[in-house]
Amino acid sequence: MWPRYRESWEVGAPEAAPLSRDEAEQSQKVLCSVEVVGVTCLLTAPSPACPRPARPSHAFRPRPACRRRSPPQLQHLGPGYLGPEQLPDCLKGCDVVVIPAGVPRKPGMTRDDLFNTNATIVATLTAACAQHCPEAMICIISNPVNSTIPITAEVFKKHGVYNPNKIFGVTTLDIVRANAFVAELKDLDPARVNVPVIGGHAGKTIIPLISQCTPKVEFPQDQLTTLTGRIQEAGTEVVKAKAGAGSATLSMAYAGARFVFSLVDAMNGKEGVVECSFVKSQETDCPYFSTPLLLGKKGIEKNLGIGKVSPFEEKMIAEAIPELKASIKKGEEFVKNMK
Ligand SMILES: NC(=O)c1ccc[n+]([C@@H]2O[C@H](COP(=O)([O-])OP(=O)(O)OC[C@H]3O[C@@H](n4cnc5c(N)ncnc54)[C@H](O)[C@@H]3O)[C@@H](O)[C@H]2O)c1
């Protein structure tokens, strides 16, 4: 069993359930090649050998000590690549590419303030994916996710290899936080709480559907409003608490790992795997929107849609759409204007 871990200064970092022997053995049989491009926390956070997030000095390079002593899941990862000239080797043959590359927020910044730097990074890396592993599932963590997913889609379109069922904006941290906060208030086990979080991944575009929470929970309206606001601003709470030292790392690593393990499970034939993600969508008049998705061997098998929502949630969806549309357009325009 892996030990439980928690980094208390990270809002929403759950106590991770230890892997059972079955799960650990299963993880050795993964039939997928996964590459993490712009490696940081994802390689190191869940490892008892490296309880603190590592900060590699070069892009693509996991800390050697972590690689040597990492638990079985992490040993599946490749040898570590040191720069853009090695991107083709890094990506060839990949089934899943996870991209957390880019700059994180500093206090006072919105996710959109990262656009200028991260848009180019994501466009460059996804162009390499389109060339060297066009069939891979692409999981984008780099912010602003509301724009980096349209960027990825447009880059894949430019290369003539676009498949909307294989491009995912990783919003799982919003679900992890919502589950943790609801569990805290209702004295429940966070691992057994499931709050779908739809919309996008920034401020008021993050829409927790507490009315669809399992198990069912009720809150008076004032508490519901406060709880919703806390889920929407939890990332900002972490950025402020870290006072210039970055954004969520351990909780993001947990959330990223959860999403990727779910995807790999579904690709390997597990049935009934559902995760929310920001994807190409026809559920609203926004061209991209996060909703629960049934995952399968080829990526999105079925978009499960928004479902029945309360009037409070309906109002949040309506209010989020103009901001979402603007962020999406900004991403699309960026690729159109790229040389
Ligand atoms: N989706 C989410 O829920 C979520 C949560 C937390 C952080 N984030 C985002 O993830 C991104 C990374 O955050 P972090 O805290 O890990 O930052 P970090 O500074 O700790 O790590 C960023 C990494 O990206 C690498 N990098 C930079 N430019 C690169 C390039 N051109 N090619 C390859 N690698 C490159 C750096 O070398 C570094 O290792 C930020 O954009 C942040 O906003 C998203």
From TrEMBL:
The EC designation for this entry is 1.1.1.37
Provide the gene name from the record: MDH2
Key words of the record: NAD, Oxidoreductase, Tricarboxylic acid cycle
Kindly give the Pfam families that the UniProt entry links to this protein. Ldh_1_C, Ldh_1_N
Could you state a single Gene Ontology molecular function term?
L-malate dehydrogenase (NAD+) activity
Broad EC category: oxidoreductase
**InterPro entries documented for this protein:** Lactate/malate_DH_C, Lactate/malate_DH_N, Lactate_DH/Glyco_Ohase_4_C, Malate_DH_AS, Malate_DH_type1, NAD(P)-bd_dom_sf
Taxonomic classification, please?
A: Eukaryota, Metazoa, Chordata, Craniata, Vertebrata
Q: Where is the composition biased (Basic residues)?
A: 58-70
Organism the protein comes from: Moschus moschiferus (Siberian musk deer)
Family the UniProt entry places it in: Belongs to the LDH/MDH superfamily. MDH type 1 family.
**SUPFAM superfamilies in alphabetical order:** LDH C-terminal domain-like, NAD(P)-binding Rossmann-fold domains
Please identify the protein, giving its name as recorded: Malate dehydrogenase
Q: Carries keyword Glycosyltransferase?
A: no
